[in-house]
Amino acid sequence: MIGGGIVLTVIAVLLVAGGTRFLQTKGWSAPIPRPDGGYLSGGETDTEHAEKQSGLLRWLTTVDHKDIGILYLVFGTVAALWGGTEAMMIRTELLTPTADVWTAATYNGLFTTHGITMLFFFVTPVFFGIANYFLPLLLNADDMAFPRINAIAFWMLPPSLLLARAGLPADALGKLLSTVGVKIPFLEALHPPETGWTLYAPLSIQSGNPQVDLLLLGLHLSGIATTLGAINFIITIVSERGENIGWMDVDIFSWTMLSTSGIILFAFPLLGSAVIMMLLDRNLGTTFYLVEGGGPILWQHLFWFFGHPEVYIIFLPATGLVSFILPKFSSRKLFGFKFIVYSTLAIGVLSFGVWAHHMFTTGIDPRIRMSFMFVSLAIAVPSAVKVFNWISTMYDGRIRLTAPMIFAVGSIGTFIIGGVTGVFLAAIPIDLVVHDTYFVVGHFHFILMAIIPMMMFAASYYWYPIITGRMYDQLLARLQAVLTIIGVPITFGSMLIMGALGLPRRYANYPDQFALLQQIASVGAFIIGIGVLLWLWNMVQSYRVGPRVRDADVWNLKRDDAFTREWQWFEEKLADRYGTDGGDPDDD
Amino acid sequence: MHRALRAVTGGLVGTVVLSGFLLVLDTQARGTLSVAAVVGRFLGIDGRPLIAIALFAIVTVVLWPALFVAVEGYLPFGPDPATRAVAFAAVIGIVFVVVGRGSITGPILVIYVGFSVLAHLAYGFAFGSIYGRLAG
Ligand code: HEM
Ligand SMILES: [Cu+2]
Q: Among the entry's GO cellular component annotations, what is one (chain A) (predicted)?
């Protein structure tokens, strides 16, 4: 029937409206909490912002570390939602043993772009965002060492994301244009690469898809951006610290950012060069990664010489956040601060000595292989030191299960599984059996979808009042934390089992006997996804109508003498805004 | 700003958001479902995708906001217009999914339902927050 949907909608809306009215007459009300008297945020709330450009121009021209931090956070969130959509699609495809939702080729494209988006455009930008906002505050620095380079480093990211992911926007644009009758063949030639995020030769060189070239350029550009950011962090931490901040006063999060930035400095330029060689192989007939030249294994060596440090680049800031946040809600000082710093630095160095554990099955010399096994086992030690110290920090402490704390504790638990399965994989005899199975996917997701995003969520909840001046719905936040912590073992525990049973990774279809485990994994993934939506809602809605924070000691940190510098800065800001007596705001 | 004008401005922004989501659904689905066809089924004019999309845009820019303004006071989760509009849009989204479904079955249904409802929730939030904000 013409207009059938519209008529039905109108009826449904009227029913809901009438039903609500009816319930209200029976005494039901569902008002949202508005302790500040129903104020809806409108524009700037921050007095210091008055000096800056307003509106869009402000965000395009800013060199303030806090603004750039927020830009990074928004960018990283967008990338995460994009990559997350692909994760949900992957899990949808795997609900049935046959590739009946999308073709196998599309599936290959999905896991490739999912991995690249998450690793390069989600994790590093978000941690850079957090660090951009808070390192200068924690270090009592005026700003980052090079504010303009800071802005440049950020603004290189959107174009590199667009290059790397041109397939989808091109497709969408092509669709839009074709509905109005315009056809641009180049837009249709761009398909998502189907090489896996590791871009192994020879597949990546033989692929005729021009999108692979754009992806390589995008990765190169993002590498430059990341390196610039890392240099900025290093200089800021080394030479921009405030007068009263000696090396002994540097907080644990800054230490991990220092290590991470150091690793970036050595790892990313290498990726950049390796990627350029691949570009040349593809387009100019060089033979770096061809059998006649350096050979496909050369790519694996170069890629993993970058790739393994990369996993620590994205992992260390998360550990820094655990070390930073966990003591605040245990009413204890971080146990063995020095040893955590040493273990962080040790990981930074050792991370360059383990790359060939990704190549145990390529037939490399068994003696070389063995040495890589030992270093890989050794690198688990500093990680274990951290875990031990975190648990000791909580031991006998006064634990307060706020949302950030639930995430921190959940991170420790899931990281133990991720770390121990890593040690399994580092043992050659085991790796020969489970290499390239779901066991590996389970292993790294117990870190990549656990401590890393969990500590980002924790940080967003912990520092939300500082960034927005408002408080969020804490119950919803705790619910999200619990959902995530339940969802992760369901999803990735199933993968560990499937891998141990021998199911290879990266296939759109699989034998029937794995259907149940795959479906369980998908359900877990949807639980995590729902949690993410709750988080997004909480962040956005609380920014609009969350109760305003008047007392800077949101977490009762003064009691434990843990009211760190970023909160002191916040307290001054609040005093400026509301007057020291906590009276009504004079602006707004 | 006049209430009607606020509503239409909100509807415009909401429609941009909604189209973004639906466009992503269409491209991500890679040919397994067509949003234009879904919209066509929703409006009851199957087989003329271009007209369906144009009509749908008018509906989301003008008609839904008008309906919202008419029933705003009766909707749950007030007084914030944004939360109210999210509830309002959830209803639209559900009807949209049911009426527009056609012969979509199997696992793709999960993506179709999830994305379409999400798109409408985002539409409601964008519409409602703009509508509320312009009230000054
Ligand atoms: C306790 C320390 C760790 C050890 C001993 C370890 C060991 C390993 C080994 C041996 C592999 C190769 C498995 C194979 O392909 O057959 C592997 C893969 C992987 N690990 Fe770990 N790992 C550790 C920690 C981490 C951390 C902290 C992360 C991430 C932040 C991580 C992320 C990854 C990723 C992404 C892969 C798979 C790469 C791919 O093939 O696509 N690992 N790990
Ligand atoms: Cu590794």
A: membrane
Chain B's closest residue to A20, CA to CA, is B76
Q: Distance between CA A27 and CA A456 in Å, rounded?
A: 40
And the tokens for A386? 């951290």
Backbone angles phi, psi at A290, to 5 degrees: -95, 160
Task: Say yes or no for a CB contact (<8 Å) between A89 and B28.
Answer: yes
Q: Which amino acid is at B45?
A: I
Backbone angles phi, psi at A123, to 5 degrees: -65, -55
B132 pLDDT above the threshold of 90: no
Dist. CA A424–CA A437, nearest whole Å: 13
- In chain A the domains, ranked by start, together with CATH numbers, are 61-250 (1.20.210.10)
Instruction: Compute, in angstroms, the gap from residue A516 CA to the centroid of ligand 2.
Output: 30
* Per-residue model confidence (pLDDT) at position A258: 97
pTM equals 0.90
Q: Which residues contact B44 (CB under 8 A, 6 or more apart)?
A: A1, A2, A3, A4, A5
Q: Which residue has the tokens 């005729």?
A: A208
How high is the pLDDT of residue A97?
94
> How many angstroms from the chain centroid is the CA of residue A357?
24
Mean pLDDT in order along chain A per 10 residues (588 residues): 79 84 74 45 42 76 94 96 92 90 87 95 97 96 94 96 85 73 76 92 90 95 97 95 90 96 96 96 94 93 96 96 96 92 92 95 92 94 94 94 97 96 96 96 96 97 96 96 97 97 95 96 96 96 92 93 94 85 48
Q: How far apart are CA A53 and CA A58, in angstroms?
A: 5
User: Cβ–Cβ of B67/A10 closer than 8 Å?
Assistant: yes
CB contact under 8 A, A106 and B132: no
Rounded CA-CA distance A90/A508 in Å is 8
- Cβ partners under 8 Å of residue A335, min gap 6: A389, A390, A392, A393, A395
Can you read off the two tokens belonging to residue A227? 């390196």
d(CA A123, CA A120): 7
Assess A12–B contact: CB distance below 8 Å, yes or no: yes
What is the pLDDT at residue A129?
Answer: 97
Among candidate residues A419, A400, A396, the one with its CA nearest the CA of residue A409? A400
Query: How far away, in angstroms, is A229 Cα from ligand 1 center?
Result: 25
Pocket test for ligand 1, best of A304, A308, A311 (most atoms within 8 A of CB): A311
Alpha helix (H) residue ranges in A94-122: 104-116
Angle between helices A124-138 and A65-93 (to 10 degrees): 150
Pocket-forming residues, ligand 1, beta carbon under 6 Å: A 198, 311, 314-315, 357-358, 376, 379-380, 383, 419, 422-423, 425-426, 431, 435, 440, 443-444, 447-448
Rounded Cα distance between A74 and A254, Å, is 22
Kindly give the residue spans of alpha helices, DSSP state H, lying in A427-547: 428-434, 438-446, 452-468, 474-488, 494-500, 515-545
Checking if the pLDDT of B50 tops 80, the result is: yes
Ligand nearest to the CA of A417: 1
